[in-house]
Amino acid sequence: MTDTKSADKPVVIRRLWKSYGNNEVLKGISLSVERGEVVAIIGPSGSGKSTLLQCINFMEPFDDGEVLIDGRPIGLIQTPGGTRTRMPEKELNALRREIGIVFQQYNLFPHLTVLANVIEAPVHVLGLPRAEAILRAREQLKKVGLTGKENAYPGELSGGQQQRVAIARALAMQPKVMLFDEVTSALDPELVGEVLATMRKLAEEGMTMIVVTHEMAFARDVADRVIFMDGGMIVEAGDPKEFFSNPQHERSKAFLKRLLSNGEDTKDAA
């Protein structure tokens, strides 16, 4: 059933809890994302950032709370008896199609060309005619600056190029929201800028984005809102420039102080 109050927001998270055994990873997270908004999620390793992203499309089933995509609950649904159960896979997969996700690892098929990687899901999941899928794929590859690489294989590309193929592949499904999980963490420093530039372009085009990142300059300059997580909770949230110049919580201050002591730059995004 659609929650009409939340239908105008692409993502709404309410009181989300997630544990691995006795380890509570998410502790009552609540967050809503506006259409066209770029939300950067930052925080120390182990704070629950990546788990939160994976709960949004129910790659990681959560224990309690709910996630709404355009007002529709994903993952768990209410039964007539008042209990909650996992939704049918057909419904779950239909909702997942509206959520693009890109990980640290590119997860490209090494035996397929760039073009074949990008058209794989539109053809086999959406059922698009191959010719239409190819047109869509070429459009997305152009958007990420990879025109002319359609017939290359992943092993012939740099890490930054492979990550941009992964972004094009997600965009080819025409998602309503894009999730980015530390997409530059596995890249050599000289390749980070080209991926961040692609993400900046998507932001400028109005794509709704939730970005888990260690790239503080990107969070400051491109995001509309910064969420600082620690210990499975949202500790502080607000305007990026205000957060980086005047953090309010002691844990936020300590986190930023550590970054500065390690020589992290929060001034200029790629």
TrEMBL record:
Which InterPro entries does the entry link to? Answer: AAA+_ATPase (IPR003593), ABC_ATPase_HisP-typ (IPR030679), ABC_transporter-like_ATP-bd (IPR003439), ABC_transporter-like_CS (IPR017871), MetN_ABC_transporter-like (IPR050086), P-loop_NTPase (IPR027417)
Report if keyword Transport is assigned: yes
Where it sits in the cell: the answer is: Cell membrane
Key words, A-Z: ATP-binding, Cell membrane, Membrane, Nucleotide-binding, Transport
The organism sits in which domain of life? Answer: Bacteria
Key word Nucleus present in the record? no
Listed transmembrane segments: none
Q: Name one GO cellular component term.
A: plasma membrane
* Source organism of the structure: Pseudolabrys taiwanensis
- What protein family does this chain belong to? Belongs to the ABC transporter superfamily.
Q: What is this protein called?
A: Amino acid ABC transporter ATP-binding protein
One Pfam match, by short name? ABC_tran
Q: Which SMART domains match?
A: AAA (SM00382)
The cross-references to PANTHER family, in alphabetical order and at most eight, read:
AMINO ACID IMPORT ATP-BINDING PROTEIN, L-CYSTINE IMPORT ATP-BINDING PROTEIN TCYN
Membrane topology category: Peripheral membrane protein
SUPFAM superfamilies reported in the protein's UniProt record: P-loop containing nucleoside triphosphate hydrolases (SSF52540)
One GO MF term on file is:
ATP hydrolysis activity
ABC transporter domain span: 11-256
